[in-house]
Amino acid sequence: MATEPPFASYPSRVLLVLFAVALIMLRIDALAPPAFSIEEASAHDLQLAFRQNKLTSRQLTEFYLDRIGRLNPLLRGVIEVNPDARHQADRADRERKAKPHGLLSALHGIPILLKDNIATKDKMNTTAGSFALLGSVVPRDAGVVARLRRAGAVLLGKASLSEWAYYRSSRGPSGWCARSGQGKNPYNLSADPCGSSSGSAISVAANMGAVSLGTETDGSILCPSSFNSVVGIKPTLGLTSRGGVVPITPRQDTVGPMCRTVADAVHVLDVIVGFDPYDAKATREASKYIPRGGYKRFLKADGLKGKRLGIVRNPFFDNYSGTPVLKAFDSHFNTLRKQGAVLVDHLELANVNEIYSDASGEGVAMSAEFKLALNKYLRDLVVSPVRSLADVIAFNNKHKHAEKIDEYGQDLFLAAQATSGINETVKSARRNMDRLTRDGFEKLMRQNKLDALVTPGSAVSTVLAIGGFPGISVPAGYDKDGVPFGICFGGLRGSEPTLIEIAYGFEQATKIRRPPSLMQCDRHLDVGPSSCV
């Protein structure tokens, strides 16, 4: 009787062995820790991944550049990327190997996006979103950028904005600029992204950057942070330098972080605060507020305990009467109480109607101050197609199609150009704002011994703007259309430590933020499903 050759079953045995090995590997994979996910990772998460050799700054930078390449044609949150970003990431990786961890900043090797009105002395443009400044050459890095470079951050690119920080036209749409077009809210593409720091908020919300910087004159950090479910810190006037920032008015302009978490925003704030000789008066005065050891020590989960929080219903909450937003805030008030805060409700802010009217003087003063500040900025450029506000107006008229001047106009520019310096009318407007601040917000805070005023969205921005006060916006919910809204904690000058405790305590107690769903983006962007996340 014939017998089977001794190795006839060898192939089948090999298959069985391979199958068994595969099962073992699957079991091992199931037991192994999950791979590190960059999306939604905080700066702390990223630094930990660096130290554990799970990630390099080069890989992280490539991740964000890829995200920008896939999502930015839809969202328009980034104007341009830095051609030297990969080189900076490689340098950070080399430095990490050479230096002990304790000597590196929390932003070392972390990619950051900068609003396109913040100057960088490199291959990137600084244009405030306008073709009028394309090709201009700045004399130096902005003060905050110099600090970021020293901290080892990777300058990833320039974020889009409402053109000229929303001070060209009163009719232009929020989030639009000539260079990048209309910025889109990643939570609802038809919703307002708010401005002027729209791109900074859009980009970090959609994970096109780890952290970002914005600027605010009146609401330009707080509003887009609220509308795009990110954390925005509008610092005390002068706490961060405005040197090298395309100005609106030095009386109200400020630079601040816009990030996905309070902790990330605080890490950025720690890096960018401090004296700058190119904004000497304001930064010297505000330096007294910087706490020894920085701001990160105020990231306390129990930060709400014992805090006195004021609530002014009219007009800040009455505008939301009967809406899901107000219902959400009623729940938030309960959370604040449970976390140990004392809520002082139904307060009245003196002269609030005047503050939010033309009678406040903000518009009058800002118009004159803008012309003077912008003319000085343009004169100081090394190279520029325009050297004055009058030149910018003429440029816009000459390039009407590119700048959409016929459609949106430039009424704010024209009004500013018609001013004649700081005359008695402007001085009177400034005195009126000082009075409104003194008799309004300052008196309310001190008489009621408040640590912060709590308001929805960015409703309180003008109160904070005219007095140079700080505010922090934290994600607070989403409306029926999926559009985010924030909660704002505002305080007196230099109260950032207290506001950070409050904001962090609220964030940790609620953990409301969620990333935007872009699963349907390929129906809006014809580049295939790889553009979606």
Q: How would you describe the overall organization of this protein?
A:
The chain is an alpha/beta fold. The protein folds into 2 domains: 43-300 and 470-481 and 490-531, Amidase signature (AS) enzymes (Alpha-Beta Complex); 362-425, no CATH class. It contains 20 helices and 13 strands. The protein has helices at residues 10-31, 43-51, 57-75, 85-98, 143-150, 163-166, 198-205, 222-227, 262-272, 280-286, 324-338, 352-355, 362-380, 389-398, 400-403, 405-408, 411-417, 424-447, 461-467, 496-510; strands at 78-81, 111-115, 154-159, 176-177, 181-182, 211-216, 231-234, 254-259, 308-311, 342-344, 452-456, 471-478, 484-490. The strands form 2 sheets. Strands 1-3-2-6-8-7-12-13-11-9-10 form an 11-stranded mixed beta sheet, sandwiched between helices. The chain has a two-stranded antiparallel ribbon with strand order 4-5. The longest helix is centred in the last third of the chain and has 24 residues, at 424-447. The radius of gyration is 25 Å and the shape is globular. The model is unreliable at 1-11, 14-34 and 519-533 (pLDDT under 50). Residues 60-461 form the Amidase domain.
List keywords for this structure.
two-stranded antiparallel ribbon; disordered C terminus; disordered N terminus; 533 residues; alpha/beta; 41% helix; 11-stranded mixed β-sheet; 13 strands; Amidase signature (AS) enzymes
Topology:
Elements: H1 10-31, H2 43-51, H3 57-75, E1 78-81, H4 85-98, E2 111-115, H5 143-150, E3 154-159, H6 163-166, E4 176-177, E5 181-182, H7 198-205, E6 211-216, H8 222-227, E7 231-234, E8 254-259, H9 262-272, H10 280-286, E9 308-311, H11 324-338, E10 342-344, H12 352-355, H13 362-380, H14 389-398, H15 400-403, H16 405-408, H17 411-417, H18 424-447, E11 452-456, H19 461-467, E12 471-478, E13 484-490, H20 496-510
Parallel strand pairs: 2-3, 2-6, 9-10, 9-11
Antiparallel strand pairs: 1-3, 4-5, 6-8, 7-8, 7-12, 11-13, 12-13
